[in-house]
UniProtKB/TrEMBL annotation:
Region of interest: Disordered: 167-192
Membrane-crossing segments per the record: none
Source species taxonomy: Bacteria, Bacillati, Actinomycetota, Actinomycetes, Micrococcales
Protein name: DNA polymerase sliding clamp subunit
Pfam families: Ferritin
Gene3D superfamilies linked to this entry: 1.20.1260.10
Molecular-function GO term, any one: ferric iron binding
Family classification: Belongs to the Dps family.
Top-level taxon of origin: Bacteria
Occurrences of domain Ferritin/DPS (ranges): 26-164
The organism of origin for this protein: Cellulosimicrobium funkei
Length: 192
């Protein structure tokens, strides 16, 4: 049987080259998502305005730093599996399955509403990736589960700004960033 050119020449012990390539492919999708997330978070950091500006501005930077560390860990795991990680902007844009973040300069509450949707997408896909690696590679699965802890914590920080004292989210039912931003702003001014 001839060697396939898309397989790594080596991978970690106990995985076949096919398994290593599969895990690396799953991680490459997460690498793109996390790179996009850290850029989106920094964009939000620069573009929030209005009441609670400083609180949100300062809340975002530690999230950026943590997500950048996740990016590095994922890229290094891909390389450990014998595959070259793709971290260029062109690769991210060409291979992503989501649209670019749509808000520019906007209120803190609008950005937090949109960020709620961003985190829903990232966390959902990260959970799917963790599930896909559960039986295949314990190390990768552990890495992804560790990331989920922080991502879900950051999501809670965002949602705390969107939650009523009764536990209702102002973004409930929104399915897009702009829809969530609009719902959050309407709730902030008391509109249904």
């Amino acid at each position: 049987m001839a060697a396939r050119s898309d397989l790594p020449k080596y991978t970690v012990p106990s995985l076949t080259p096919e398994e290593g390539a599969k895990v690396a492919g799953i991680l490459q999708e997460r690498l793109h998502a996390l790179n996009d997330l850290q850029l989106t978070l920094k964009h939000i950091h620069w573009n929030v305005v209005g009441p609670h500006f400083i609180a949100v501005h300062e809340m975002i930077d530690p999230q950026v730093d943590a997500v950048r560390a996740m990016v590095d860990a994922v890229a290094e795991r891909i390389a450990t599996l014998g595959v070259s990680p793709k971290g260029t902007p062109g690769a991210l844009v060409a291979e992503r399955s989501w649209e670019d973040y749509s808000l520019g300069r906007a209120s803190t509450i609008a950005h937090l509403g949109a960020l709620d949707e961003v985190y829903v997408g990232v966390i959902t896909a990260h959970r799917e990736a963790a599930s896909a690696t559960e039986e295949l590679d314990d190390v990768t699965n552990d890495l992804l589960i560790g990331h989920l802890h922080d991502l879900e914590l950051f999501h809670w920080f965002v949602r705390a700004h969107l939650e009523s004292t009764g536990g209702d989210l102002s973004t409930d039912g929104a399915r897009t960033e702009t829809g969530a931003a609009r719902k959050a702003e309407q709730a902030a001014v008391g509109q249904p």
